[in-house]
Design goal:
Elements lengths: L21 E4 L5 E6 L5 E8 L11 H8 L9 H10 L3 E3 L7 E8 L3 H13 L5 H18 L3 H14 L11 H6 L2 H11 L5 E7 L4 H10 L22 E5 L5 E9 L8 H12 L5 H9 L6 E7 L4 E10 L3 H17 L4 H18 L3 H13 L6 H11 L2 H11 L6 E6 L8
Parallel strand pairs: 2-6, 7-11
Antiparallel strand pairs: 1-2, 3-5, 3-6, 4-5, 8-10, 8-11, 9-10
Length: 430
């Protein structure tokens, strides 16, 4: 009999391996990555285009293009497309990030052959109907107005703008004016320039049989074969960090965002900085949580995060606190950065951190769809799939001295932008 009075033994995770990924190309040159796992007859198809902000000729057109993709083709209206996918119990989406636009399909395997021609139709001849565009732009403006009432949203927007500059693809912020400036012709031009085989990747995951590659070739092999679209020229990036406090209507609390520019995943220091950021504020037992939440009770939650894009990245600390503890919270954040620079982490803390990170990576291997997310992240950053094993080895072998050296190099207070948004008078207020 199972003795339920005794907890299960804790086993250290010693080895993690990324499942085998089949790679091949369609006749038009699109790379395909197959993650063939699982027993359920379900598939996830992602067609990802490098068509985000670095490829824009006008602000916001990549985001709006993504949203408008499924709103109609030359042959079908958006409502008809939605009804078709609903009939088959499938779902489609157009996830967007700063670098890429994706078209995603979830479906039962038996319906894939029926739905793939519709997917191809959407990716080959979207119509971008003006009757759907104008209400969409209006909804975006209304949503923006709501977002700007939140101090945390304003703080993040301002931090990225300060780090990269208001004209940089990674730094500019949306506004009612930029939404109103978007025209149907902008979307058509962006689509023609960027939605082709040279800019595309295909990641398919789930229970895959021998017919899938033939179907992908038959329908997505029709995408125009072109050379990869060149990047736009990035403007110069500000170099001197500042402390900026911004007045806001939220009278109860202030939002804090403290961060600096770093690098993309391609940088050799990225894996180790991922570990350092987690130690600082990446999980419940992190330094910032134990100090500012558990010890002092200044906030419900505080975190440190690495935001990585294809061509750059940054690190930031975020929290919201009541106005009466704003000053001591800022002081304790900088104290934790100083401790990281001056003191080695002890073995017990480092082992707990390793265990947490290995458990996190283990979760990412749970099922075909999770594995496909790892594959997509590496592929879109032009990293080999062996990068997963490199990350595992760095987590297992990293030493306290390495973390301290990184803190000394990258976590100096004078390099950090400090953005506080709230109804607090301060010498930096504007």
């Amino acid at each position: 009999m199972l003795d339920r009075t005794q907890p299960p033994k804790i086993h250290e995770i010693t080895d993690l391996l990324l499942p085998e990924v089949r790679q091949y190309q369609l006749s038009n040159g699109i790379p395909v990555y197959e993650v063939n796992m699982g027993t359920q007859d379900i598939l996830k198809l992602e067609v990802v285009f490098e068509a985000g902000r670095p490829y824009e000729s006008k602000q916001l057109i990549s985001r709006v293009t993504a949203a408008m993709l499924k709103e109609g083709t030359r042959q079908r209206k958006g409502a008809e497309i939605a009804e078709l996918f609903d009939f088959y119990g499938a779902s489609i989406g157009t996830p967007y990030n700063l670098d890429n636009i994706s078209f995603t399909l979830y479906t039962l395997s038996k319906h894939f052959e029926s739905l793939l021609p519709i997917v191809a139709e959407i990716l080959l001849e979207p119509d971008f109907p003006d009757a759907e565009l104008q209400p969409l732009l209006m909804r975006y403006q209304q949503r923006l107005q709501v977002d700007l009432s939140r101090a945390d949203v304003v703080a993040y927007r301002q931090l990225t703008e300060f780090i990269y500059g208001k004209n940089h693809p990674y730094g500019y912020n949306s506004s009612a004016e930029t939404f109103r400036a978007v025209q149907r012709e902008d979307l058509i031009a962006h689509f023609k320039q960027n939605f082709h085989a040279g800019n595309a990747r295909i990641i398919i995951s789930g229970k895959i049989d021998s017919t899938i590659s033939k179907l992908l070739e038959q329908y997505l092999g029709q995408l125009t074969k072109k050379a990869k679209t060149p990047l736009a020229t990035f403007p110069p990036i500000p170099t001197k960090a500042q402390k900026v406090h911004i007045k806001h209507t939220d009278r109860a609390q202030s939002a804090i965002r403290i961060g600096r520019r770093l690098f993309s995943r391609q940088h050799p220091d990225y894996p180790s900085m991922y570990v350092l950021s987690t130690l600082l504020g990446g999980y419940f037992g992190s330094r910032l949580m134990m100090n500012i939440r558990e010890k002092n009770g200044y906030t419900y939650g505080i975190y440190s995060s690495l935001d990585t894009m294809r061509h750059d990245g940054f690190m930031y600390i975020g929290t919201e606190v009541s106005n009466d503890v704003l000053a001591p919270t800022l002081q304790e954040i900088y104290n934790e950065l100083r401790v990281l620079r001056e003191t080695l982490a002890d073995k017990k803390e480092l082992q707990m951190l390793r265990n947490y990170l290995m458990g996190t990576l283990l979760n990412t291997l749970d099922g075909a769809f999770n594995v496909s997310e790892i594959v997509k992240a590496f592929v879109l950053d032009d990293l080999p799939l062996s990068y997963f094993q490199e990350l595992v080895e760095i987590i297992q072998g990293i030493q306290a001295s390495k973390l301290q050296a990184l803190a000394q190099q990258y976590l100096q207070e004078e390099d950090m932008w400090e953005v506080v948004v709230g109804n607090v008078e301060n010498q930096y207020s504007k």
